[in-house]
TrEMBL record:
This is Putative acetyltransferase EpsM. It comes from Bacteroides cellulosilyticus. InterPro entries: AcTrfase_PglD-like, PglD_N, Trans_hexapeptide_repeat, Trimer_LpxA-like_sf. GO terms for molecular function: acyltransferase activity. Residues 3-85 form the PglD N-terminal domain. Belongs to the transferase hexapeptide repeat family. Its EC number is 2.3.1.-. It is an enzyme of class 2 (transferase). PANTHER family: ACETYLTRANSFERASE (PTHR43300), UDP-N-ACETYLBACILLOSAMINE N-ACETYLTRANSFERASE (PTHR43300:SF7). Keywords: Acyltransferase, Transferase. Pfam families: PglD_N.
Length: 214
């Protein structure tokens, strides 16, 4: 079994600890040794899953091989954490639930550091970058291209031939229609339906999704 720690000791961190257990039920893969978190004291208990081992400084001083799953929903914070990790002993594996469905594994391409929770579905010819979070029951259509550092909340629906950039946040149950191109730092509110190309750095809400000045 490979040693792994979770970066982020909140609710999502505990959910990923549960996910690691589910993966181990199918095939013994991961030994969870604890958590890293910059906001909690070393030794803080995280439910029954383990203790906080430190923050970014302790991770960079870790002296043996260690996999890390970053469990933070804010894309910019994830990006910041990754940029601060320089320890060559650390790697960022993809953590993929056993119940994830791939229409065509041969044409599915993925980078590193992604977390894909239960019951997500990927059609053919889908490409995923690095450090994305798919938080459960998300559906990706054919020929979708996803960049890096995006967060997809549960039950999202993305039609075919959608192209998504970096550091975007998509709310629970939101929908993106076919062939839409999304740039960077876009936020789509829960239950919203995106029908046209959005502008970077803007929050969109509603059906159809409209620009919000919040």
């Amino acid at each position: 079994m490979k040693k792994i720690a979770i970066y982020g000791a909140g609710g999502f961190g505990r959910e990923v600890a549960c996910l690691l257990n589910k993966i181990n039920e199918v095939k013994l893969t991961w030994e969870l040794i604890g958590f890293f978190d910059d906001g909690l004291a070393i030794g803080t208990e995280v439910s029954h899953f383990g203790n906080v081992l430190g923050g970014i400084n302790e991770l960079n001083e870790w002296s043996s091989k260690l996999s890390i799953a970053i469990t933070i929903g804010n894309p910019k914070i994830v990006q910041s954490i990754v940029s601060k990790v320089f320890n060559q002993n650390v790697d960022f594996p993809n953590i993929i639930a056993p119940t994830v469905y791939f229409s065509d594994p041969e044409t599915f391409n993925i980078g590193r550091g992604n977390i894909i929770q239960k019951h997500c579905s990927f059609s053919c010819d889908v490409t995923i970058g690095d450090f994305n979070v798919m938080d459960g029951a998300d559906v990706f259509g054919h020929d979708d291209v996803v960049g890096s550092y995006n967060t997809f909340m549960p039950a999202m629906r993305i039609s075919g031939e959608v192209n998504i950039g970096d550091c975007n946040f998509f709310g629970v149950g939101s929908i993106i229609l076919q062939k839409i191109k999304i740039g960077n730092n876009v936020r789509l509110g829960a239950g919203s339906v995106l029908m046209r190309k959005p502008k970077d750095g803007i929050l969109y809400m509603g059906n159809p999704a409209k620009k919000m000045n919040l």
